[in-house]
Amino acid sequence: MANALEGCVSSLRSSMQLLDSSISILDSGVNDLPRLSKVLQTTRHFELISEPDLHTAQRALLSEIRPEVDNLLARVSNYLDKLERREQSLIAKCELNEGRLNQYEAPAASSGRASAAGSRSASRAGQGRGLTGLEELKVKQLRQKKERLSYAVDRLNLQAQQRQRQLRMSMAAPQQFRYDDEF
Asked: What are the residue ranges in the chain where pLDDT is below 50?
């Protein structure tokens, strides 16, 4: 019986050692369980939504964006019209300046001829009726006045043409922009 009791005790000791080793193995295996549970936890980064919800969100976004886009397009259109009017104004100024330049070049070119003709007439005037210094000054002033007045008339004509262009531009109907309600 002692022999049978010793067998039970040794069997119990071997079972306890086996149980201790199993506990230590399990302990080392579950020791990292909280970290593993966090690592293995699934996180939903993207949520799936239904198609009607998607269309509703798109329409809401479109209704928010459309007025701003319309406003920006109107501002761009106004700015482009302003730039076009400025361009027309600069073109008119350029034409006016070219007219002035041509007007001043023409008398300068003809003044050489006129001075030659004037010297001839002065030589003839010595023979016949000549102009006094005061009369020559008066004639020169009248010619300058005539040139100034013709310049003013040309300038007013160009300004009138420019105003007519601006009026035509302002009377033109602005182009309407359309949007598609669908994406």
From this structure: 113-128, 173, 175-183
Q: CB–CB of 168/55 below 8 Å? A: no
How far apart CA 111 and CA 119 sit, in angstroms, is: 11
User: HSE (CB half, 13 Å, CA atoms) of 121?
Assistant: 11
The amino acid that residue 48 corresponds to is: L
Tens of pLDDT, residue by residue over 86-121, are 988 888 888 888 877 777 666 655 555 444 444 444
What's the rounded Cα separation, in Å, for the pair 60 and 55? 9
pTM of the model: 0.34
User: Do 157 and 99 meet the contact criterion of CB atoms below 8 Å apart?
Assistant: no
Spatial neighbors of 179 by CB under 8 A, at least 6 apart, are 62, 66, 69
- Helix (H) or strand (E) holding 44, with range, is none
CA dist 81 and 166 (Å) reads 10
Angle made by CA atoms 70, 76, 82, in degrees to the nearest 5 = 135
- Number of neighbouring beta carbons within 10 Å of residue 155: 15
